[in-house]
Amino acid sequence: MTVRSRIILALSGLMLVVMYVAPLWRIELEAPQYPEGLGLHIMIDDIQGISEFDLMKINQLNHYIGMQEIVPDAIPELKIMPWLIAGLIGLALLAAATGSRTLFTIWVGAFMLTLLVGLVDFWLWEYDYGHNLDLDNAAIKVPGMSYQPPLIGSKQLLNFRATSWPALGGWMAVLSCLTGMIMWWRTRPVRPATGSKASVAVAALLALTMTACAPGPEAFHFGEDIGAHCRMPIMDARFASQIVLDTGKVLKFDSIECATAWLATQDPSRVHSIWVSDGTGSGDLIPASEAVFIRDEAIRSPMGGGLAAFASAEDAATTMGSDTLTLLSWNDLVTDSSLA
């Protein structure tokens, strides 16, 4: 191993120290009766409410539907995880100090296995909590209903919207593992004739992995989804929009003007991406930065802003039946104080 690869390996191992101070996973719950939301942070050795009393409130809600109480001290994985991560950190530093490719290979393999087993174990934990219900003592009983939150992404559970994504500690683990895998592959002994194709294949696989984990928009459930700003049901596919936060949480709005009003009160650094529905009614979502917008009194958008979005000026002209339209950009909308 070269000095450069040994330094990168050591840094990859030290990235995992963040897991001891930052949340590994974040689960959020939203419902009309909890507009501020409830949530959990899964730490390396604990489960905590995002706000002070969130864990207590979630346990109270779980009691009504027969779910088990979440008791961090009763979860053995939370006692094992600190030692597993400490072992990975130590092994990375040992491999870097000795320059042993064998130890490097063991570290990469053990790390990948730990991540895989951890995700499977987390899914099984969620499955047990969501399916193993005490219906004899439950106040609310829905035949055939289970309450397993999603591993990654969002899911509707009765009137709650559950969102689950890795938090800072989890993303650092992914980054550490990917960095180690890339460095391991680049320092492997290969025959020149096969190295190029194999490198391309590995790069494509890593890119696909990272893309699959990237936050993105979700399908609308019209008549069921509730607008994050106005708290009204989302009904019309021509005007609905979404804002994806950097945590992976998806906020849905019944109109473009609701989305811009919500943004006016928020820190823009929280936003990962913004999506608007095609005003033709196709159901397609368009990145807001790529869409063209029309503001016209003839457009009956849900909150009266008269706004519609289109993929192109041609689509806008065809839908509106006019070639003399004033086209707006997303930047025009977010700087328009009348929409705040």
What would your notes on this structure say?
By secondary structure, the protein is an alpha+beta fold. The chain folds into two domains: 3-213, Butyryl-CoA Dehydrogenase, subunit A, domain 3 (Up-down Bundle), CATH 1.20.140; 241-339, no CATH class. Helix content is 41%, strand content 17%. It has nine helices and eleven strands. The protein has a five-stranded antiparallel β-sheet with strand order 3-2-1-5-4. It has a four-stranded antiparallel β-sheet with strand order 7-6-8-9. Strand 4 (153-157) and strand 5 (160-166) form a beta hairpin. The termini are far apart.
Instruction: Compute the average pLDDT.
Output: 86
Named CATH topology of the largest domain: Butyryl-CoA Dehydrogenase, subunit A, domain 3
Strand segment count: 11
Number of domains: 2
Structural class comes to alpha+beta
User: Approximately what portion of the residues adopt beta-strand conformation?
Assistant: 15-25%
At the first level of CATH, the class of the largest domain is: Mainly Alpha
Rg calc: 24 Å
Helicity, as a percent range: 40-55%
Distance between the termini: 57 Å
Quickly give the CATH architecture of the largest domain.
Up-down Bundle
What topology, given as strand order, has the largest sheet? 3-2-1-5-4
String of helices and strands: HEEEHHHEEHHEEHEEEEHH
